[in-house]
Amino acid sequence: MNDVVLVNCTVTDARATGVPGTASGSRTTEAGAAGGKGRIADAAVWVRDDRIAAVGPRERILERTGDARPLDLDGAYVTPGLVNMHTHLSLSLPGEGGDSVKNMTAHELALYMADGARRTLRCGVTTVRCVAEKDHADFALRRAIESGRAIGPRIFTAGRALVCTGGHGHEGSDTLECDGADGFRRGVRSQVKAGADLIKIMISGGIAGKHEKIDTPQLFSDEMAAAMQTAHAWGRKVTAHAGPAAVIAEAVELGLDCVEHGYQLTPEVAKRMAERGTSLVPTLLVTRCKEFFDELGVPEWMQCRSLGAGPRHLESYAMALDAGVDVLLGSDMPPFWDFEGTNASVRELECMSEGGLGPAGALYAGTLGPVRWLGADADLGTVEVGKYADLIAMDADPLAGTSAFRGVRWVMKGGRVVRDDRSGWEKP
Ligand SMILES: [Zn+2]
Q: What is the mean pLDDT of residues 233-243?
């Protein structure tokens, strides 16, 4: 049996942040000194099999751990693993880089995605929410990870995203074209049948479609309503790729659970999102990642559209924060991608923090917030007894600065260490 006790560390999770809805309401270091909820200095975390058996001040825990093997974390800060809520492990943007993914055989694609999953976990991202993957390969990948045949994060997935004929992203096998209310009902059912945990719909144009604009409305009300009613009847939440305020406003009233991007929100729409409990995954990187686009050979028209939308996108994000919308980490870029000195997941979290959320809000947006949206908070999201031991360690304090996550040097998923830089060991 796996039986280890992590020592020489400070445990920090989102309950220490004072973010509304988290337990202690007390803030950062004072709570630490007092040993408050969600922040424990000189802590020990006892891990048995895949879950946390005890967590608390070191001396108190070590009295109980018996023969458990101690694992010294050398003064690290320990948080729950990150959760990236907008990933595509089979992403193919316009351009040569994307074409090489698009032209892969099914076998090549599966191996490519498995490699991406391994890299993602190594970054400290222990859970992802896939929001459109090619050819249902995500379900095969999830089964492989769950059965131990592949290494990667926990996967919650939408399967294929539902689009209207010719709608956003219609070009690839990561979307399914549907038309009319019946078409969207069938689309939802077909993804649920394949194993989808949630449903993704494309309700407006976007950055990557030459034939559309960011603010092109793409679904009629009856189509959106049909998708949401069907998904909700099956207990699946719905998230929507969406840019313009008017389209988002309509979808929010129809019961949408989450907005992706939200490039052009207004204060009024943001207020309604907050009131209705609609979350926002802002994906700030997608309008500020020229280096990434250059690397993939993304054409000029798309780069102009993306980077041109950047300032309004940031304003939109600020409006959401002002209104109190629940914002969640999501990179859209492959979550492990090397970008601006770190990986895309951490860089996105830094952008969210710098854009007004701050380090405490960012810790919530990268861990407990997403887990709550996924309905997985009984198992994930905090360092608490009974939850999966999905943990990461870094030398700097993430509540002092979000860039602390750049220094993730140790990763555990389900009680198994998958990265430990100090020992020079990495699971192959
Ligand atoms: Zn996306």
A: 97
